[in-house]
Amino acid sequence: MNGFEETALGLFEERFSGGTELFFAPGRVNLIGEHVDYNGGRVLPCSLSLGTYAAAAREEGVIRLASADMPGEEVRLALSELASLPLEPAAFARFGWAAYALGVAAQLIRAGYSFGGFSMAVCGSLPRGSGLSSSASLEVLTCAVVSGLYGLGLDGVTASKLSLAAERECAGVNCGIMDQFVCALGRKDCALLLDTHTLEHGYFPFDLGENVLLIMNTKKPRRLADSKYNERRAECELALRLINERLEACFPSLCTVTPEALAEAKDALPPAVFRRARHAVTENARTLAAAEALGVGDAALFGSLLSASHASLRDDYEVTGRELDSIVRAAEEQEGVLGARMTGAGFGGCAIALCRKNAAREAVRRITAVYKAETGLDCEIYTAETGDSPFGRAL
Ligand code: ADP
Ligand code: MG
Questions:
Q1: Number of structural domains the chain divides into
Q2: Residue 327's domain spans which residues?
Q3: Whose CA is nearest to atom 16 of ligand 1?
Q4: Alpha carbon distances (Å) from 225 to 10, 65, 346
Q5: Do 48 and 385 contact (CB within 8 A), yes or no?
Q6: Please, which residues have CB within 8 angstroms of residue 283's CB and are 6 or more apart in sequence?
Q7: In which residue ranges of the chain is pLDDT below 50?
């Protein structure tokens, strides 16, 4: 048992009773394909060995939740009360962090699954609020707990859709399907190429050869992320409408627009809106190229695509900010680094870098120093390790 499992179990025994089972759901890092999951594009994330653990047991008619990572009392709610709550953020706001887990249970009820109460003590090994999707990890974990305790036989696609519905309707974050999908269906040693329009997906070996993937946490909270996220979504919707009107076309999503069609519609779009659309179209192409580069083990090409993605997110999509630009630039300047980019929503959180194994230690030291000198912040840098998800191998 690892320390996180021990903590979850210890908390369970302190607060609850009953024979427990242990569960895990991973966090994720998106390798490439950023800000395209709500534009029907392709994304290429990996599930991580970092994630959220739970010790859980059945209860009579009540849900009881506690987290080792959040101070405070347990959150307790009768199933009958949960069933009568409207599925909207205002009804779940009072539960704080537990809204993610209760939201999943509420979505399971709405979808017609029949289950009883449960108690669940959680403990996470992921940094929270840093773009590695601790929220989706907690949601998918709750699906795994309820399905496991009550034999619901949930499959990964269903679990990811229910988790997404909880995040949107109960937690009030209007995100795309990527996070929940890869937390539910990712596999160790694999990257998952997902078409967010059709949900078609495939696994690529995540074998970087002589290289490692570094995850660089800027430690800058993503304060702007939510408001800018909604603004970008609105700009993308506007771009799609204007392109379809100008070309008398019916592209179903921005990422299905071809580069030629985008060029032809250019003067129908305000300049900033055109740049948002150009990011979506070019990022989608980069993602496919990156999956192919992984497939043939071309780390140099993979690295250059990471850097091109960051440039597009910085210049066209404008979601990076001072800290992410600083850490990415610091990484790219180092010997042995093949490419780097922000990952997640942007404005803070994490970035990634592809680095030769034998140069990684020195690169980490220098990136940390340059970043500190430029921003005054102490970053944290981890080597990414992939991990299995609860629904990734079951069919
Ligand atoms: P991210 O998903 O990038 O980590 P979010 O802001 O979407 O950031 O989600 C973070 C929130 O998820 C936390 O503030 C908390 O409410 C909830 N959460 C995640 N992990 C845990 C945990 N181990 N215990 C309690 N709450 C958690
Ligand atoms: Mg999240």
A1: 2
A2: 211-383
A3: 97
A4: 35, 28, 6
A5: yes
A6: 32, 33, 34, 35, 36, 41, 309, 312, 313
A7: 395
Using alpha carbons, select from 391, 27, 42 the residue that is nearest to residue 193.
42
Looking at the fold, whether 120 and 173 belong to one and the same domain comes out as: yes
Q: Which of 69, 155, 179, 315 is an active site residue?
A: 179
Asked about 179 being catalytic, the answer comes back as yes
| Last residue in a domain, options 205, 222, 237 | 205
CATH code at 170? 3.30.230.10
Find the ligand nearest to 27 CA: 1
Instruction: Tell whether 244 and 116 lie within a shared domain.
Output: no
Say whether both 176 and 284 belong to one domain: no
95 CB-near residues (< 8 Å, 6+ apart): 75, 77, 102
Pocket, ligand 1, Cβ cutoff 6 A? 52, 67, 69-70, 97, 100, 122, 124, 128-135, 138
| Residue 35: predicted pLDDT | 95
The residue from 205, 224, 253 where one domain ends is: 205
Q: Report how far ligand 2's centroid is from the alpha carbon of 56 (Å).
A: 23
pLDDT value, residue 224 = 67
Residue of 295, 379, 294, 376 lying closest to 331 (CA atoms): 379
Element (H, E) at 259: helix 259-264
pLDDT number for residue 315: 98
Q: Cβ distance 9 to 22 under 8 Å? A: yes
